[in-house]
Amino acid sequence: MAARTVKRKPERNVTSSPIQTSSQFQPTPINWLNLVWLILSIAVIIAVIAWGNLWALNFLHVAAGLLWTGIDLFMGFVIGPILRQTPFSTRREVMKRLTPRTMFILPGLAIITGTTGWYLAAEMGYLAIDWPGYGWVLAALVIVTILTIQGIGYLLPTQIRVYLELRKPEPDGAKIARLSRAYFWVIASQGLMQVLIIVIMAKFRVGI
Asked: Is residue 13 one of the residues assigned to a domain?
């Protein structure tokens, strides 16, 4: 009896799978054209202030303040604690994509909120009221100033330093951990100050 020939199916080449490993992902590049949008937003502030329209000034202040507060709170109390407990490889992939998208947004919102808030307070006569009401105004101005200085003077440069380190083939994990630890603590402090701003704005709404 002749032996039966069994045809075997060719084995699949698993190396040709289109699925990429985490090491093959490329970080989102920094799009420096976003500086155009930042400059445009500053131009809009100048135009609204020169126009003297109180509604437009208030709209810019409220819209930018809501976005700035929401992002700060989310980063400080949601993203930060999660990233601190994730493996370095996961944290690296998240930060390589997150930084290019936030490094222009947050400074822009800080500039818009602080500038419009100052002119809005001046237009509505809050800078000329007596104590103790002026204490609420002063507290708001001090907090916004601290938030802006922290954001532009510390958080933004730290973001860029961590991002550039993460792009290296062999990033310095200890350096990144040190920078990230301080960074997330500052983000958390910003979240707390944003809550204080909400309390102060509620006081403004009902009258000081």
From this structure: no
> Is the separation of the CB atoms in 167 and 96 below 8 Å?
yes
- Alpha-carbon distance of 120 to 144, in angstroms, equals 14
Contact 158, 119 (CB under 8 A): no
Four-CA torsion 69, 85, 89, 100, nearest 10 degrees? 10
On whether residue 198 sits in a domain, the answer given is yes
The 10s digit of each residue's pLDDT in 125-162 is 877 887 877 888 888 888 888 888 888 888 888 878 88
Give the CA dihedral 148, 154, 156, 161, nearest 10 degrees.
180
Q: CA-to-CA distance for 143 and 197, rounded, in angstroms?
A: 7
**In the block, residue with structure tokens 């200085």:** 149
Q: Find the domain containing 135 and state its range.
A: 54-206
Which amino acid does the sequence have at 45?
I
Cis ω for the linkage preceding 169 (within 30 of 0):
no
3 state DSSP class of 135: helix
| Count of structural domains, the chain | 1
* H helix intervals, the chain: 34-51, 54-74, 80-84, 88-102, 105-123, 133-150, 156-166, 173-206
pLDDT, tens digit, 9 for 90 and up, residues 68-78: 888 877 877 78
